[in-house]
Design goal:
Two copies of one chain form a homodimer. The first copy, chain A, has three helices and 13 strands; from the N terminus they run E-E-E-E-E-H-E-H-H-E-E-E-E-E-E-E. In chain A, strands 1, 2, 3, 4, 5, 6, 9 and 10 form an eight-stranded antiparallel sheet that branches. In chain A, strands 7-8 form a two-stranded antiparallel ribbon. In chain A, 52% of the residues are buried. The interface between A and B is large, with 60 and 60 residues. Strand 12 of chain A pairs antiparallel with strand 13 of chain B, so a sheet runs across the interface.
């Protein structure tokens, strides 16, 4: 939960370029209180869609509570968890926000965003604040296409790109079922033997 | 280049669920020879878009030669390279197929697919044969949405999911610039200490 630093929008794509699982936050714009009742959904299905303007896509099953919220509020935040949030990442994908407040259940802290009404998750390592530009039906999911209007990251883990720590790269990647990839190492193709 | 085994279409999503960089093959349907002049493009921007029917998305810059080919032929193959193909993966993203035959240049072997006219890359570890269902303009890229009609993988590396070898998971993930993540380990969130 270190202090976050702004990431230039031209580099925001690198927050998810390597395919991590993400925690997407969204709000019910008609909810009571401010900034509205916030929810969290775990998504492996995400990608970069454009460099300029910076855009990303997230796919949600059409029955999901977060699908309903993003359709209404037209905003979302992509939060990138590190391996220390593995259990919360798993849990947020298995509990419905219709029934439970996932921030409370998984001891996560909502933090005001700069450009959208949706909160960030303070414990995550990187964030992208997004405005929905399009929603495309693809089979049993909807792809929400968002323009990234603000990006932030923990400078000890992301500095121009995700950096290798003593325990490798800290992001987590969903292999399927209850299995995740973590602790990947960095190789520079220009200097492969370093 | 082991013998490949069919992956059930209900599990095909797991070939790219964890966000690897892919090599997409495509052909010029108006080209001479059979199955037409094939090309290869390296893409970090890919994702799963639907479980049933199984669908994936790939984003291509609109000036790219492969963009032109996929628009014409409405087919593509997603090939997943292992770390031993790092240099070819890098190279196929930096050379244009308008000028060079990338199969020849990077010593890759085209292999007939089962359901599409586009060849597979024999040296890759997994493959998804796709039919284009939609093309969506997203900023400076086009998202091609493909239905997966056939999936194959090397059973020593993928068996229901990517498996950890002595040198970790063998797929590669693009961090940005010339940097890639590799050798990730597997953690099972249900048994995190094993």
């Amino acid at each position: 939960m270190n202090h976050k630093k702004q990431v230039p929008l031209s580099r925001a794509n690198r927050l998810i370029n390597h395919g991590p699982v993400i925690l997407v936050t969204c709000i019910d714009p008609s909810g009571n209180g401010s900034p509205g009742k916030a929810n969290i959904i775990t998504l492996a299905w995400n990608m970069v869609l454009s460099m300029s303007p910076p855009m990303v896509g997230i796919a949600l099953g059409r029955g999901r509570y977060s699908h309903e919220l993003i359709e209404k509020s037209r905003e979302f935040v992509v939060n990138i968890p590190s391996i220390d949030l593995l259990e919360a990442t798993w849990g947020c994908g298995r509990v419905s926000g219709r029934k439970e407040d996932k921030f409370a259940r998984f001891k996560l802290t909502p933090l005001p965003a700069r450009r959208v009404a949706v909160p960030l998750i303070a414990e995550c390592s990187g964030h992208m604040e997004c405005l929905v530009k399009e929603a495309v039906e693809t089979g049993d999911h909807t792809l929400f296409v968002g323009e990234v209007v603000e990006a932030l990251a923990d400078p000890s883990l992301f500095s121009d790109h995700w950096v290798e720590t003593e325990r490798g790269i800290q992001t987590i990647h969903h292999l399927g079922g209850s299995l995740f990839l973590h602790q990947g190492k960095v190789v520079d193709v220009r200097h492969p033997n370093q």
